[in-house]
């Protein structure tokens, strides 16, 4: 699970490296998802997971590819687009507010009550955002970047129930393949329409894109293997390694500093994530532990 979290956490810094060298975001993501799809489809042919029920149809059914791919493509686009304005560490911690949005959504829908623990967690999440935005070293944080990354977190919170419904009755590898293949198709259409698919500045940018695909496939497989052993709660707790790993790579690879606001705000948000893993008496809402 730690390996999976580190794979996920490496995507943002690699995207910054590729975009800084002049490669378009849509082209980067096309090659990322294409590489990931090749790896996951190959593994599926090798392992041959059990088929889904006939009523669900195969994982490569157009509707399944569209639903799985479009949601993931939108989340990835928003989250990585925010890197134009925000440091990788700040963006990563702010994206991790999505469990708080899941809690709000489930409470509004009447699926899970807002008990004391969850109110404290929501306060921590909002306080973490305030700490990042209001810190003296946060003057350079562009409001548009903050809006984009928080929108990405909200969209992901809305995407989780959709993924949960797609996973019902299907092998997890099938859903992973649908996400990768569907994402490839959507990003390919985008990059072809802008003429950027084959506009590759150099080997470093292209290599960073392909490496993202390999890491994405590895993160899917590591997540599924870890989840089977650890269960939901310990999986969620272990996954909090991700934003800290992203922060470390931002410092080492991108020379991005870490301000006091990022440290305090990130700690508050991670505290909220841990609190939100505590069970409640009512029937649980959809798990927030879904791979991206």
Overview of the structural elements:
- Keywords: Membrane, Transmembrane, Transmembrane helix.
- With 292 residues, the protein is mostly helical.
- It has one domain (2-275).
- It is 73% helix and 0% strand.
- The protein has 12 helices and no strands.
- It has helices at residues 2-9, 11-20, 25-47, 62-81, 88-95, 98-108, 116-134, 143-167, 172-194, 203-239, 241-254, 260-275.
- Helix 1 packs across helix 10 (203-239), helix 4 (62-81) packs across helix 9 (172-194) and helix 6 (98-108) crosses helix 8 (143-167).
- It is globular, with a radius of gyration of 19 Å.
- It starts with a helix and ends in a 17-residue tail after the last helix.
Tell me what portion of residues adopts beta-strand conformation: under 5%
Biggest sheet features: none
Q: Which geometry do the CA atoms define? A: globular
Helix proportion: over 70%
Give the total of beta strands.
0
Provide the succession of SSEs: HHHHHHHHHHHH
Radius of gyration equals: 19 Å
- The overall pLDDT, averaged over residues, is 85
Number of domains: 1
Protein name: EamA domain-containing protein
Transmembrane segments: 28-46, 66-87, 93-111, 118-135, 141-163, 175-192, 204-227, 248-276
Keywords: Membrane, Transmembrane, Transmembrane helix
Pfam family, one: EamA
């Amino acid at each position: 699970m730690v390996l999976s979290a580190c794979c996920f956490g490496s995507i943002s810094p690699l995207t910054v490296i590729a975009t800084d060298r002049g490669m378009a975001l849509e082209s980067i993501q096309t090659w990322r998802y294409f590489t990931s799809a090749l790896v996951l489809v190959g593994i599926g042919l090798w392992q041959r997971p059990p088929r889904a029920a006939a009523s669900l149809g195969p994982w490569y059914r157009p509707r399944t590819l569209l639903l799985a791919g479009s949601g993931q493509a939108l989340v990835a686009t928003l989250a990585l687009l925010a890197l134009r304005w925000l440091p990788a560490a700040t963006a990563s911690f702010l994206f991790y507010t999505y469990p708080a949005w899941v809690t709000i959504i489930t409470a509004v829908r009447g699926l899970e009550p807002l008990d004391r623990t969850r109110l404290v967690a929501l306060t921590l999440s909002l306080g973490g955002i305030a700490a990042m935005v209001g810190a003296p070293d946060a003057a350079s944080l562009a409001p548009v970047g903050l809006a984009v990354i928080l929108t990405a977190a909200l969209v992901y919170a809305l995407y989780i129930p959709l993924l949960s419904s797609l996973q019902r009755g299907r092998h997890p590898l099938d859903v992973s393949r649908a996400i990768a293949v569907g994402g490839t198709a959507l990003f390919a259409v985008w990059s072809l329409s802008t003429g950027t698919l084959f506009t590759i500045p150099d080997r470093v940018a292209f290599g960073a894109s392909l490496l993202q695909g390999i890491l994405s496939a590895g993160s899917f497989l590591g997540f599924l293997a870890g989840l089977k052993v650890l269960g939901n709660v310990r999986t969620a707790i272990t996954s909090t390694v991700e934003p800290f790993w992203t922060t470390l790579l931002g410092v080492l690879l991108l020379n991005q500093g870490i301000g006091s606001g990022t440290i305090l705000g990130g700690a508050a948000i991670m505290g909220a994530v841990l609190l939100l893993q505590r069970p409640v008496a009512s029937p649980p809402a959809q798990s927030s532990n879904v791979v991206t």
